[in-house]
Amino acid sequence: MIEADWSGEIRLLEKRGVVLAAGLTGAELRRVEEIHHFRLPPDLRSFLSCALPVGPSFPNWRTPQAPELLDQLGWPFEGIAFDIEYNAFWWEPWGARPGDLSDAIGVAKAAVESAPRLIPISGHRYLPAEPDVAGNPVFSVYQTDIVYYGLDIRRYFACEFGGIDYAEAIRGEPRRIRFWTDLIEDNA
């Protein structure tokens, strides 16, 4: 586990009125990973062991099978499926779009399921589970409107909860994330 000082991020969250519960124990972190079949990246794991943001926009990691958390985990695919059905979205790397809507959504579902899992941080902000290293970018995911919202989780917190502006949060070269980076670049 990364030993890190998250006091600056904790102060930002508290200043914005975010309620923080005690951090997750090692057993609770392992339970989340076992239930959802992903590893929490080391920086997220470290932060969540120090403090657990609670409230309507934050995932309830203490209850990893809560319907609200399951909805947050499903949001990225559901948004893509919505755009396929209602906004004529189709991504060229998937090949020719099937004529049947359910077949088209099935192609997208298979692609998203083979992509790195997106872990909810707050609202529609997500951190990819892969690679299993610190420093993955945070994405803002709203249907197929997907953009970087921080080069890493620290910059995301500073942008979302105060301290730096959006331009600073994404300044630099973000780590490439299989599938998601290509989708962002192709939709830019």
Explain this structure.
The protein has 188 residues and is of the alpha+beta class. Helices cover 44% and strands 15% of the residues. It has one domain (7-186). It is globular and about 50 Å long. The model has no long low-confidence stretch (mean pLDDT 95).
What attributes characterize this protein structure?
188 residues, alpha+beta, four-stranded antiparallel beta sheet, 8 helices
* Radius of gyration (Å): 17 Å
* Secondary-structure element series: HEHHEHHEEEEHHH
Chain-averaged pLDDT: 95
**Overall outline:** globular
Total helices: the number is: 8
The structural class is: alpha+beta
Number of domains: 1
The percent of residues in helical segments reads 40-55%
Q: Quote the distance from N terminus to C terminus.
A: 35 Å
- How much strand content do the residues show? 5-15%
| Major sheet description | 4 strands, antiparallel
Give the beta-strand count: 6
| Strand arrangement in the largest pleated sheet | 3-4-5-6
Give the uncertain stretches in residue-range form: none
